[in-house]
Design brief:
- The complex is a heterodimer of chains A (about 625) and B (about 240).
- Chain A is of the alpha+beta class.
- Chain A has 3 domains: about 200 residues, no CATH class; about 250 residues, no CATH class; about 140 residues, no CATH class.
- Chain A contains 19 helices and 9 strands.
- Chain A has a 6-stranded mixed barrel with strand order 2-3-7-4-6-5.
- In chain A, strand 2 and strand 3 form a beta hairpin.
- Chain B has about 240 residues and is of the alpha/beta class.
- Chain B contains 8 helices and 10 strands.
- In chain B, helix 3 packs across helix 4, helix 3 packs parallel to helix 5 and helix 5 runs parallel beside helix 6.
- The chains are: A alpha+beta (about 625), B alpha/beta (about 240).
- Chains A and B meet through helix 1 and helix 4 of A and helix 2 and helix 3 of B.
């Protein structure tokens, strides 16, 4: 069987190059994300840092680790999806070969073993290519993370010897699990199908598709429903995880949906248009398979960037709505004494570590603590806080229990157990995890704290004069300027995160798109030849194929947006629940860009594949049947 | 002695008013060591009859016996075993596996059956169809006639009780067709049972007997007719 697998691989290499590439890059992406994650999690602060810097460092690595966790999860999802759909497609395209095998005495088990054998070879070869490719991917990912300052300068992914085993295992696992369902399906191919000219119009919606579709639809729906109740952090996390199950659900129903949506595309009139339309109606599974990776790509990119920027915008709006000040001073000083100043909330930010729980449940977490004047803070941020003595409040950044006691350790001293007596609502924009009253932290420890003062003016005060006076305490900006700068910073951070999380994954999914387009065209030589002996010119055949490709791509784009909209609904519901204002911020240039790239890539692929598939004169193709 | 017996076999496609009786209550016996041709106009149910006889198509009513074995209700595993050892197929489109050489194609049924085919047996089988020198060629490097002879070698390598041939000369030019028919004649003379579906009176005339089918029913059976007689008979049924 293994020899047959090898012969099969060698002969149908166009079908398998794509499968091999998808395994190799899948392994590379998973390996790189995993190594970076391990590196970040075990990254020790460089020697010579102060206690405060060490705490900030560990807060930074925690963020990097969770981001890399998302990257790893995305890589595993994409690899699993792209590989299994590529394999399923290649198997589907070889139904006739497999039926032939059954005809000359192959048993169902042998068909299954043949396909598993192929998957085994592809898994091993894919891992073999994937390991060195993964090292390059890791360099790129680490460079991006350094450049965007999610990790310090010295950060580079570290090689671990055991990753060889993990990557080989990943390749095998991905390849074999990817082919299992397809192999089961293929084993049911009836020998008689070898005798039919075209594969029997097998049922397009199998029971497995219905079950998977409904299951993932249910998962996506549950996330959409629960997200608004998850608070800012939980809600965001859930909303950003909706696009995956939603896209899998749409893909499961693709044989029904793709032809339906493709029919809406403008084919143009004439014989070529109607031929393209007829081809699409006839080849529903092929259309669905070609569309699948694109649906996932669009859903992830549009859904997650849309949800991400909606959350960011919602946070920005929230800060703008809730900050009642005229000036922001990056510093502190005798601001309250400046004539014309009504209220000043000077906030001192310190890194710290909070320990909660007892015994087994003890947990220590890096936090940011903010020393505030409760009355001024309440007035400026529009939320009541009452603090005194050793009592502290849970801040807008969440993550800290809203009652009970917490143990707070600051860079230069342990403050011991502190009662949490109040809380401000957790906000979309985040912020400090813990609010501390003045006097709790010794003045000496506050020397290194980052200070920011929000200043509200008395009615009738001269802003210019006040501003000049404030400048003695630190750089001053008007609230509008400060909000704009804050918004820019938040947007830029969001974009960087999206680029790291989705960038390479998106490229990988794009490879899946090219792959499926190539596989879809690879087995159409005969069909093209038949069209040409019927009287179509080579150019017309290529144009029909291009029309079909555009219709399928258009349908996939629409369906991707349908899946993405589930994530956007979750974002709308969550922002509404957290800030009171449902927010949706879509980047239309990005959406247009994705559509343009998709149409260009699939169009070019179709042109190249159909042009090369029609290179030989049709008569020789029709005469030489394999 | 019969090698294949069909009793009251029917096969209906579709339901209700759209139902097509592809094979309608056919009772036929095929003698051991004889070559029987099945003829009939297009749509007369020739291919369906062959598929039912070979266990590729389920029958709705009736029974099919291969030798003493009732294959009417045989499961997939039994039918697979049957294809490996007791039945051989040859088709109009050759249906060789493009990835494998002629030799490997011929050896395939034996390997699928878990046997280790000796090179000698495979070469001898190829030699019997006159292609010993083409053993290492891929199907696409062979002419249509050569491909069909490889397909015959593949079918014969298991020494099947019955060789089923569906339009074996349908895609060949007359010279290649004659070579293939000569080969089949020699096999039949050596005792091989063959059931062949064909359109071509010339091909049918090479068989020992010709069964005529129309609308799924057997309408005639002649033995020892020449091509002219077969053609006349066929024409009379097509009127």
């Amino acid at each position: 069987m293994l020899r047959m697998s090898r012969a099969g691989l060698a002969d149908r290499w166009t079908l398998f190059v794509g499968a091999l590439l998808s395994v190799a890059l899948g392994v590379a992406l998973v390996q790189s994300s995993l190594l970076l994650l391990i590196t970040a999690a075990t990254f020790d602060p460089p020697p010579g840092l102060s206690a405060a810097e060490r705490m900030e460092f560990s807060d930074g690595t925690t963020a990097a680790v969770s981001m890399l966790g998302v990257v790893l999860g995305g890589a595993v999802f994409l690899a699993g999806f792209i590989i299994s759909s590529t394999f399923a497609f290649t198997v589907d395209q070889r139904r006739r070969d497999l039926a032939l095998l059954r005809l000359v005495g192959g048993s169902r088990g042998q068909v299954r073993r043949l396909l598993l054998g192929e998957a085994l070879l592809l898994g091993v070869a894919g891992a073999g290519l994937g390991v060195p490719a993964g090292l390059e991917v890791m360099k790129l990912q680490a460079w991006l993370m350094r450049r965007f300052e999610f990790v310090p300068d010295g950060f580079t992914g570290q090689w671990r010897m055991w990753i060889l085993g993990v990557s080989l295992g990943t390749g095998l696992l991905l390849a074999i699990s990817g082919v299992l369902v397809a192999a089961r399906r293929a084993a049911r191919v009836r020998p008689l199908e070898a005798l039919r000219e075209t594969g029997a119009a097998a049922r397009v919606m199998t029971a497995g598709r219905w079950i998977a579709g409904l299951l993932f639809f249910g998962g996506a729906l549950a996330l959409v429903i629960v997200a608004p109740h998850g608070g800012p952090a939980g809600g965001q996390a859930m909303a950003l995880n909706v696009a995956m199950p939603a896209s899998v659900a749409v893909v499961a129903f693709a044989p029904l949906l793709v032809p339906l949506f493709a029919r809406l595309m403008p084919f143009g009139g004439g014989v070529l248009g109607s031929l393209a339309r007829a081809n699409l109606r006839d080849a529903r599974r092929r259309s669905a398979s070609v569309a699948a990776p694109l649906i996932v790509l669009v859903a992830l990119v549009v859904g997650n960037t849309g949800a991400g920027s909606s959350f960011t915008t919602s946070g920005i709006d929230e800060v703008a709505r809730s900050t009642h000040a005229d000036f922001v001073v990056e510093g502190r000083g005798p601001i309250a004494d400046v004539p014309g100043v009504a209220t000043v909330s000077t906030e001192l930010s310190l890194p710290g570590e909070v320990t909660t729980g007892q015994g087994e449940d003890r947990e220590t977490e890096a936090v940011s603590a903010l020393v505030v004047d409760p009355a001024a803070y309440s007035a400026i941020h529009g939320t009541p806080v009452r603090l005194s003595g050793r009592a502290v409040a849970a801040g807008p950044g969440g993550d800290v229990p809203k009652s009970g006691t917490v143990r707070l350790r600051l860079p230069e001293g342990d403050l011991g157990d502190l009662p949490v007596v109040a809380s401000v609502p957790a906000t979309m924009s985040g912020g400090a995890n813990l609010l501390l009253p003045p006097g709790l932290v010794p003045e000496a420890q506050l020397a290194g704290a980052q200070a920011r003062s929000f200043v509200a003016l008395k009615p009738g005060a001269d802003p210019a004069a006040v501003r000049a006076a404030l400048a003695r305490s630190g750089p001053v900006s008007s609230l509008d300027d400060w909000l704009r700068a804050d918004a820019d910073a938040r947007n830029s951070t969001n974009e960087k995160i999206m680029l790291i999380v989705l960038g390479l994954g998106g490229l990988y999914a794009l490879l899946g798109v090219v792959n499926s387009a190539v596989i879809g065209a690879a087995t159409r030589r005969r069909e093209f030849a038949e069209a040409r002996v019927t009287g179509l010119t080579r150019g017309q055949v290529v144009r029909v194929a291009l029309l079909e490709t555009f219709a399928v791509t258009g349908a996939a784009l629409l369906l991707g947006v349908v899946a993405a909209s589930a994530a956007l609904i979750a974002a709308l519901a969550t922002t509404s629940a957290v800030t009171g204002a449902a927010t949706l911020d879509l980047s239309w240039p990005l959406i247009a860009g994705v559509a343009a790239v998709a149409l260009t890539v699939t169009g070019l692929t179709s042109l190249i594949t159909s042009w090369s598939a029609t290179r030989r004169p049709p008569v020789t193709l029709l005469a030489a049947q394999e | 002695m019969t090698t294949l017996t069909m009793t009251g076999v029917s096969r209906v496609f579709g339901r209700g008013p759209a139902a097509v009786h592809a094979v309608d209550d056919v009772t036929l016996t095929f003698p051991r060591g004889g070559w029987t041709a099945v003829m009939g106009p297009s749509g007369s149910g020739k291919s369906t009859l062959l598929h039912c006889a070979a266990g590729l198509e389920r029958v709705d009513t009736g029974r099919v016996l291969l030798g003493d074995t009732d294959i009417t209700a045989a499961g997939d595993a039994d039918l697979t075993a049957l294809r490996r050892s007791r039945i051989g197929f040859v088709f109009q489109n050759f249906n060789l596996i493009g990835a494998l050489s002629a030799e490997q194609n011929v050896a395939l049924p034996l390997r699928l059956a878990g046997r280790r085919p000796s090179r000698r047996v495979v070469r001898a089988t190829l030699d019997a169809v006159g292609l010993a020198d083409r053993a290492r060629h891929r199907p696409r490097e062979l002419s249509g006639g050569q491909q069909q002879r490889v397909a015959i070698a593949r079918a014969m390598v298991t020494r099947p009780e019955v060789l089923f041939a569906d339009e074996p000369t349908g895609a060949l030019d007359s010279t290649a067709a004659r070579t293939v028919l000569d080969l089949m004649r020699a096999m039949a003379d050596a005792g091989q049972s063959i059931v062949m579906v064909t359109h071509d009176p010339g091909a049918a005339a090479r068989a020992d007997a010709v069964v005529f089918l129309r609308d799924g029913r057997v309408v005639d059976r002649v033995a020892g007719a020449d091509a002219r007689q077969v053609a006349d008979r066929l024409a009379s049924w097509e009127r």
